Amino acid sequence: MNEVEYLRIISGQKTDLRAQILKPCLWLLSLPYYITVLIRNWMFDRHWRSVKDVAVPVISLGNLTTGGTGKTPLVAYLTQWFQKQNINVALLSRGYRSLPGEVNDEKLLLDRLCPGVPHYQNPNRLASAVKAVEAGAQLMILDDGFQHRKIARNLNIVLIDSLCPWGHGYLLPRGLLREPKSALKRADLVILTRTDQCSQAELENLTSEIEKQVPCNLIVHAEFRPQYLVNAHGETQLLESVASKTVVSFCAIGNPEGFKQTLKRAGFQVARMKVFPDHHHYSQAELNTIGTHATAASADLILTTCKDLVKISEHKLAGVPVWAVEIGVEITVGREAFQEILQNLANQVSSC
């Protein structure tokens, strides 16, 4: 069972006999996982496991679920915001699914979006934090840090994807939840992402559910809006010039449905979409197959995400141009409160 099939099973998209057999088995496996999470959090809450302070303010950006909430665009947004305040930012991540001796797609993308910002990838993020401070970092952003409780943080942000907020309703591996919803009580701020892609009624119900754990004034809404297209050569073009074109798309991200909705809302006619496991490393044979699908569909363009584009060097596949959709973050609800929180942190850095 590969990752794509696994996601179809736990989401209920696949309902054959194999799926019906596997789902109860996955639920049974989630029980020891749940107990382990409870014990670990209980030990941290009672200070039986140590939490280390570092010499500079730390922002943690994380999820309740595994991937797909839009952390990378938000990491770039925060980094660029503090850079404008002339603050030296360092990024800490574990390098999830990077090949031996290489960095992963998230670092490659953030290196492009935030040039010159040190990005330390190491499962031992405390060791990375020490190096960052020694190198002159004034503030650190801990990517995917909500469950990484060994480092103290000044701001604990949790991202929740409005399209799939609770990971299909179960803890891993039956669902995608890393922790129960009650873990949101540790959050200082919750950012609902892709709020423009769900109905108002769904958004209100989701907000009501979150308010059981987090005050309403600490809930922010964010949208990921397509800005323009970019290719492997760094060339760009406006969305308006190609928005009505027929396209074939592919991606290897945590929430492919969100990317598909982004393309549709931008006006593209998506003839076919190929989904790969999150953080997938493409082989040449797979890229050739995508090109074949594009020519068969008489596609004008092949579209992917910027997170995928950094892993390939081709600007054409089977003669069809390959472009990525550059995404910008727009805070639509709670912007003033969010900016105030960030400014308070910036002031704290300045006073050090």
From TrEMBL:
Membrane-crossing residue ranges in chain numbering: none
Enzyme nomenclature, EC number: 2.7.1.130
GO biological-process terms attached to the record: lipid A biosynthetic process; lipopolysaccharide core region biosynthetic process
GO molecular function annotation: ATP binding; lipid-A 4'-kinase activity
This protein's record includes keyword Ubl conjugation: no
The keyword Lipid metabolism appears for this protein: yes
GO cellular component: plasma membrane
Catalytic activity entry: a lipid A disaccharide + ATP = a lipid IVA + ADP + H(+)
InterPro entries: LpxK (IPR003758), P-loop_NTPase (IPR027417)
Binding site for ATP: T65, T66, G67, G68, T69, G70, K71, T72
Superkingdom of the source species: Bacteria
UniProt cross-references to Pfam families, sorted A to Z: LpxK
Pathway(s): Glycolipid biosynthesis; lipid IV(A) biosynthesis; lipid IV(A) from (3R)-3-hydroxytetradecanoyl-[acyl-carrier-protein] and UDP-N-acetyl-alpha-D-glucosamine: step 6/6
Signal sequence residues: none
Keywords, ordered alphabetically: ATP-binding, Kinase, Lipid A biosynthesis, Lipid biosynthesis, Lipid metabolism, Nucleotide-binding, Transferase
Annotated PANTHER family: TETRAACYLDISACCHARIDE 4'-KINASE, TETRAACYLDISACCHARIDE 4'-KINASE, MITOCHONDRIAL-RELATED
Family per record: Belongs to the LpxK family.
Function: Transfers the gamma-phosphate of ATP to the 4'-position of a tetraacyldisaccharide 1-phosphate intermediate (termed DS-1-P) to form tetraacyldisaccharide 1,4'-bis-phosphate (lipid IVA).
Protein name: Tetraacyldisaccharide 4'-kinase
Annotated source species: Gimesia aquarii
